[in-house]
Design goal:
Layout (H helix, E strand, L loop, with lengths): L4 H10 L7 H7 L5 E4 L10 H10 L3 E4 L29 H10 L6 H4 L5 E4 L25 H17 L3 E4 L1 H10 L2 E3 L2 H7 L21 E7 L5 H6 L3 E7 L4 E4 L6 E8 L2 E8 L6 E4 L3 H10 L10 H15 L2
Parallel strand pairs: 1-2, 1-3, 3-4, 4-11
Antiparallel strand pairs: 5-8, 6-7, 6-9, 9-10, 10-11
Length: 327
């Protein structure tokens, strides 16, 4: 691992930049690309301080994106979707999910939100409303949180970036939302999926079980598929060890979507998608794992690097996003 102290010192000097319009931020720092971080509610966004430092370390200017709102629904004063549009679980009701899927970013405020933004880092988070799937499903998320306001914001963001070829690095939930916008088939709950495939003993590989004391990310290796991909060029190997993982949902298949699968994890004969890309876009990389967590723990929190994925490779994902955003 490289010595990051001098890089981190520079990051701390500039990480406070978070303006409403990216063009202003860009002018202040001599043209470095402005990287928008996908919206979370203020109560959820404590982790964004680490994201800002990481983006700055990689050579970009971080900006927290505002909430993207659709005129297909109405909102409460706190930005949540009014109860008339959601199920008790928080899932978007099917009729309104259909409108969001049909309209994409068109009936939103995204033109204002994305003013001056050169690239996007899509973050992890809650489950996605299964009413947004290509083949909609009823909600069976075993008590997990669904955030309809964030579903709308993230769906519009991924659709806009796709249609305008804006570079994106999407992790976990955002990788899943990217896939849903493209029309992937989807696994709503991995343990349930394993049962349907005849696997009786599911191992909690992709996240610690709910209720686990001191619950944290799990770590496992992934296989990089032998296809021409940004992921393979960044990792430079057939495997990537100790990636940070925390999810119970997953893309099932990218068949017929225009996306390619770039990585997998296989357990008991079942393969799960760990990475997707759109090879026709400048930079559209989705990772089911969390490279930002490894950087945060090793570089910012000074944890022992032996327990984490290679930090240089993890930071290289962000550097690649920023390089693509400069073009």
């Amino acid at each position: 691992m490289k010595k990051w102290s001098h890089v981190l010192s520079a990051a701390i000097l500039t990480v406070g930049i978070c303006l409403g319009y990216g063009q202003e931020a860009q002018a202040m720092v001599g043209g470095k690309p402005v990287i928008g971080i996908s919206w979370k509610s203020p109560k959820q966004a404590k982790s964004y301080e680490a994201f800002k430092k990481i983006i700055t370390m990689a050579g970009g200017i971080p900006v927290e994106l505002d909430q993207i709102k659709s005129t297909d629904v109405t909102y409460a004063a706190d930005g949540t979707v009014d109860k008339a549009y959601v199920e008790p679980s928080g899932m978007l009701k099917q009729a309104y999910a259909d409108k969001i899927r049909h309209d994409g970013f068109e009936r939103t405020n995204i033109q204002t939100v994305m003013q001056g933004i050169d690239g996007v880092f899509g973050t992890g988070g809650e489950d996605i409303s299964p009413s947004l799937y290509k083949v909609p499903e009823t909600e069976k998320n075993h008590g997990e949180t669904i955030n309809a306001a964030r579903d709308i914001s993230d769906y519009a963001l991924q659709d806009y970036c796709r249609r305008h070829d804006i570079p994106v690095l999407n992790v976990c939930r955002s990788e899943q939302m990217m896939g849903i916008v493209y029309g992937v088939t989807f696994i709503q709950d991995i343990p349930d999926y394993y049962k349907t495939q005849g696997v009786k003993a599911y191992k909690e590989i992709h996240r610690m079980a709910p209720g686990t004391p001191n619950r944290d990310y799990t770590h496992h290796a992934i296989r990089i598929l032998p296809v021409n991909s940004k992921l393979r060029s960044i990792v430079g190997d057939d495997t990537f060890d100790k990636v940070s993982s925390w999810h119970h949902q997953n893309i099932l298949s990218v068949a017929g979507t225009g996306l390619i699968q770039t990585a997998e994890y296989t357990d008991q004969g079942l393969s799960l998608v760990e990475g997707v890309e759109d090879p026709h876009r400048k930079f559209a990389v989705g990772l089911q794992f969390h490279p930002e967590n490894d950087i945060k723990q090793v570089v910012l929190n000074h944890k022992d690097p032996k327990g984490y994925a290679d930090v240089d490779i993890c930071l290289a994902f962000f550097k690649a996003l920023i390089a693509a955003s400069q073009k």
